[in-house]
Amino acid sequence: MRANEFSAWFFSGRGAEAAAVVMRLDGGRVVVEATDGTARESEPLATVMMSEPFDHAPRLIALRSGGTLEVEEEGGRLARALARAGVAVSPVVRLRRWWPAVLVALAGLIVLVALAYLKGLPLAARWVADRLPAGIEGRLGDRMLLALDRHYLGPSRFDAERRERLAGRFADAATKAAPGVPYRLEFRATSEESINAFALPGG
């Protein structure tokens, strides 16, 4: 087979069956011939659409007639023939083959994901929290507390006098830090000694 000829499969677009054909690049045209040499299609190279080249995947060439050619790259032979015919390689393909560009793209992706996690996620959570109706937020907090009581928390071991004293100190601090913000203080016990306080939605 000559340098500008390639074995291919032709899908006409009118049926599911593929036909074995020979694709030839001839004078700036894509010529499709049956295996017996009968011409089937002939279109200018400038009017066809080609998929990007990959090392282990066939090239797909879409014709204006609605048909599609599936051509094996065969070690880059098709790419070289297209280059000789004047078909330019896209910038995306050139960058993909240049490993420094791949590393830069990978580093950029990692930075983007990190920024989205560190900056975007808190901003999105704050935006949702600011627009969440107070009633829904309160019900969410009640359900979370119910689940915690059921699985992780137990009754507080503080006596009433100590709870009242702590509640008074907390009220003084809350008045100074967030005046006018409603809240409800609950006392519970947990086996995790490192946990001494936490907040739930709805105050």
H/E topology pattern: EEEEEEEHHHHEHE
List low-confidence stretches: none
Which CATH architecture of the largest domain is right? Roll
Looking at the structure, what is the overall shape? rod-shaped
**What is the percentage of strand-forming residues?**
15-25%
**Spatial ordering of strands, largest sheet:** 4-3-2-1-7-6-5
Q: What is the CATH T-level topology of the largest domain? A: PH-domain like
Which secondary-structure class do the elements indicate? Answer: alpha+beta
Radius of gyration: 34 Å
User: Overall pLDDT, averaged?
Assistant: 84
Fold and architecture overview:
The protein has 203 residues and is α+β, with helices and mostly antiparallel strands. It folds into 3 domains: 5-89, Pleckstrin-homology domain (PH domain)/Phosphotyrosine-binding domain (PTB) (PH-domain like, Roll); 98-131; 133-203, no CATH class. It has helices at 77-84, 91-97, 99-131, 134-151, 160-177; strands at 5-11, 18-26, 29-34, 39-44, 49-50, 59-62, 68-71, 154-155, 188-189. Strands 4-3-2-1-7-6-5 form a 7-stranded antiparallel beta sheet. The longest helix is centred in the middle third of the chain and has 33 residues, at 99-131. The protein is rod-shaped.
